[in-house]
Amino acid sequence: MDNSPVDPVAYMDVLKKTRRRRRYFFGVVLLYIPAILITYYISPTNRAMGTLFGFWVVILIIVTFLAAVSRCPRCGNYFHMHGMTFLVLRKCLHCQLHINSDKIT
Ligand SMILES: [Zn+2]
Question: What is the pTM (predicted TM-score) of this model?
């Protein structure tokens, strides 16, 4: 079951969703530095920085959760979770299915 052949058509929708969630995750992580800089220019107070940080953490928790519960279309396990370990790699942590395996051929 774990190494059944790749079926690009059947995996396309699920992998598309997983890729979108990964983009959200990396986007939120990378957004932190510019958001902090912009807030610093507008209002360099501890309160403004703290508020931004609070918002950012809440959004990060949401996108991390969405990425973590993405399931692998081949083995049915969580794509980015192995036990309690959360790793955003390009392959399924269980069956090594590549995130872009629906794009081959
Ligand atoms: Zn898998």
Answer: 0.85
